[in-house]
Amino acid sequence: MELFEKTLSSQCLYKGRIISLYSDEVELENGAKAGREVIDHPGGVGVLPITADGDVLMVRQFRYPHRQVLLEIPAGKLDANEEPLVCGKRELEEETGFCAKEYIPLGVMYPTPGYLNETVHLYLARGLYKTHQHLDEDEFLTVERMPFAKVLQMVLEGEIEDAKTQVTILKYQVMLANGLL
After folding, report:
1. The pLDDT of residue 1
2. Angle of helix 148-156 versus helix 163-177 axis, rounded to 10
3. How far does Cα 70 stand from its chain's mean position?
4. pLDDT at 92 over 80
5. 94 catalytic residue (yes or no)
6. What's the pTM?
7. Largest CB tally within 10 Å, which of 62, 75, 85, 179?
8. Half-sphere exposure of 25 (CA within 13 A, CB side)
9. Please, which pLDDT band fits residue 100 given cuts at 50, 70 and 90?
10. If residue 15 lies in a helix (H) or strand (E), which one and from where to where?
11. Mean pLDDT of 46-64
């Protein structure tokens, strides 16, 4: 069994500023044909900023698709041909007003691989130092410094719904517990 689908045709149904929507026809490994709807996204980066005393810098912002305010790690969309680490450094400073001396890759995640090709690159940022926040003109958020144990508890109790934040917090906890950091 190959577990592969061959693209036979692809039609762009919508091309937006950030995403595009495609309707594709594929050939399955048994020769049958099927339809696939795919959202094309440039990808993004999430950064877990940890202070010297173990606190986390989180951002709280309104997320229109869910019509609610979410608590998240700082994050942002990759620009065309941008390296993920460059994006992570930019987003950390833009959103929190901090930079870091050390960035440790924590891997990648696919938020919803059934219909979205977005890849989110995750980083741990340590050795934080204050610069200045410079939000995009359409970006409104607040920065909150919280003990890591509280953020972890919020993830485990379902108070933090954002997937990249959950994955990053849980991955960091496992790495700490296993002496990997």
Report:
1. 74
2. 120
3. 13
4. yes
5. no
6. 0.94
7. 75
8. 6
9. very high
10. strand 6-15
11. 98
Around 54, how many Cα atoms within 13 Å sit in the side-chain half-sphere? Answer: 10
- Residue whose structure tokens are 């959950």: 166
For residue 136, give the DSSP letter.
-
Six token digits for residue 29: 């490994």
- pLDDT for res 2: 82
Alpha-carbon distance values, 88 to 55, 99, 120, 124 (Å): 19, 10, 10, 10
Distances (CA, A) of 156 to 50, 56, 106, 165, 170: 19, 16, 20, 12, 9
Please name the amino acid found at residue 49: P
Question: Tokens 């090709």 belong to which residue?
Answer: 117
Token code pair at residue 14: 């919508």
Catalytic hit among 25, 27, 118, 137: 137
What is the residue type of 171? Answer: K
